[in-house]
Every structure is written in structure tokens, then in C-alpha cells.
From TrEMBL:
This is SDR family oxidoreductase. Keywords: NAD, Oxidoreductase. The keyword Oxidoreductase applies. Residues 1-177 form the Ketoreductase domain. The keyword Oxidoreductase applies. Signal peptide: none annotated. It comes from Saccharothrix mutabilis subsp. mutabilis. Belongs to the short-chain dehydrogenases/reductases (SDR) family.
Length: 243
């Protein structure tokens, strides 16, 4: 089995890539960070693929490289994503919206299209899992632009699930709440900044990458062969709270 993981140099993508390799997948790790990419690839012998998910040519080149060196892609996990900035809608720079849209929406569209084409050509079926956000269902002041892009991702997941089902390709997403990663560590180290996030979660703690990995592995496996078009919250009950 061959898996392509975008955002593979990051905390979430890296943890998923490592877990897929542990299950015997031949893994291609894609990222825009060449240093982090090389480090992650060296950990378990993954194929490093420099890829800017905003760029159609880069996506096509990365997918072609993966197929040429590892074989047909069976699994896509699209974990690349950005917030772009933080601020109320009336003050947020438009550039922050553009940055989030380019990666989270355009990137999802391009990865789904190009990997979908490759899976159809291979005639082996496949599974795609996109990393969405609980914020796509529940608004947070200052993150409306980011949450809008994740809601758009959810819509793309559902449409792609319908269109690709005749080819045996399943498309799902997971929607975590805040996750402890190296990227979020500095911001969450401040107790005053951390407390409001924890207070929203009935289970009383932030997620770790270990909380996400099992659900992603399930959705990529044949154990979930009758699951498609689902956006699965992994949020410690956050969505049970009123806004």
C-alpha cells in the first residue's frame, strides 16, 4: 500500500505518516519545508516530496513522483493547512483570508483532483482523509476566516465522496479541536491563553496527535470500507457546548 501525506513535516501530518509507515505502508511525505521534510523522511525511510499544495504544477509533479517511485497511491492524507492570521473580521487583513484559502481550500481541491485522477487511472480504488477542524462547525472569534475555509473543505469532501464513489474511492475528513503540536506549543504554553480553549472541552484537555491518528488510520483502512463523505469530530465533546 502506498500513502501520500501532505503537511508531513508538521506535527499532525508527521504523526500520521509515521503511523502509516508502522502499518507497512510505503509513505511519501510532502511538505513545503525542505529541512523538516528531510528530517521526517529520514526517520523511517519515507520518500520526501517537496510540494506547495497551492500550486497545481507542484501537486502534479509530487503525485507523479510518488507513483513513479513507490507505485499507485492507495491512501491520501491531506494534513497541510494554515491559519493565515488571527483577528476579528472587520480588522483582519484580507491577506490572511487569502493565505488560508489558498492552502485549505485550493490545496484540498487540487490534491483531491490530482490524486483522484491517479487513483482512477490505477483502478485500485483508494481512500482520502482531509484534516478539517471542529471550528468548521462552531465559530471562534478571531478565526472566522480560517473556519470558513475548513467549512469549504467539508463541502469539497462531501462532493468528492459522491463523485468518486463509482471508482471505489472513499473521501472523508476528521475535524479536531485544538491540538498540541510543536507549532502550537508556544502559544499554548501561556496558561491565560490555554485556559479558554480547555474550558470549551468537556473532557477537560486539548487533543494530542495520538488522539487523531487512530481515527485517521481507521478511515484509510478497509475496516471503514463503507464510510465515505463523513467529517468526524475529534474534539473531546467541544461541539456539545453552545457557542
Amino acid at each position: 500500500m502506498v500513502a501520500l501525506v501532505t503537511g508531513g513535516a508538521g506535527g499532525i501530518g508527521g504523526a500520521i505518516a509515521t503511523a502509516l509507515a508502522g502499518r507497512g505502508h510505503r509513505v511519501a511525505v510532502a511538505d513545503v519545508d525542505p529541512v523538516g521534510l528531510a528530517r521526517k523522511a529520514d526517520e523511517f525511510g519515507a520518500l520526501p516530496v517537496e510540494m506547495d499544495v497551492r500550486d497545481e504544477a507542484a501537486v502534479r509533479e509530487g503525485v507523479a513522483k510518488t507513483v513513479a517511485e513507490l507505485g499507485p497511491i492507495d491512501v491520501l492524507v491531506h494534513a497541510a493547512g494554515v491559519v493565515g492570521g488571527v483577528g476579528p473580521l472587520l480588522a483582519l487583513p484580507v491577506a490572511a483570508l487569502d493565505a488560508a484559502y489558498a492552502v485549505n481550500v485550493r490545496g484540498t481541491f487540487l490534491l483531491t483532483r490530482v490524486v483522484g485522477e491517479a487513483m482512477i487511472t490505477a483502478r485500485r480504488g483508494g481512500a482520502m482523509v482531509h484534516i478539517s477542524s471542529a471550528g468548521s462547525f462552531q465559530p471562534t472569534v478571531g478565526l472566522g476566516h480560517y473556519e470558513a475555509t475548513k467549512a469549504a473543505m467539508n463541502a469539497l469532501v462531501r462532493s468528492a465522496a459522491l463523485e468518486l464513489a463509482p471508482h471505489g474511492i472513499r473521501v472523508n475528513a476528521v475535524a479536531p479541536g485544538p491540538v498540541e503540536t510543536p507549532l502550537t506549543a508556544a502559544a499554548l504554553a501561556d496558561p491565560a491563553a490555554r485556559a479558554p480553549w480547555v474550558e470549551r472541552i468537556p473532557l477537560g484537555r486539548l487533543a494530542t496527535t495520538d488522539d487523531l491518528v487512530p481515527a485517521v488510520l481507521l478511515l484509510t483502512s478497509l475496516e471503514a470500507r463503507h464510510v465515505t463523505g463523513t467529517v468526524l469530530p475529534i474534539d473531546g465533546g467541544q461541539l456539545l457546548r453552545s457557542v
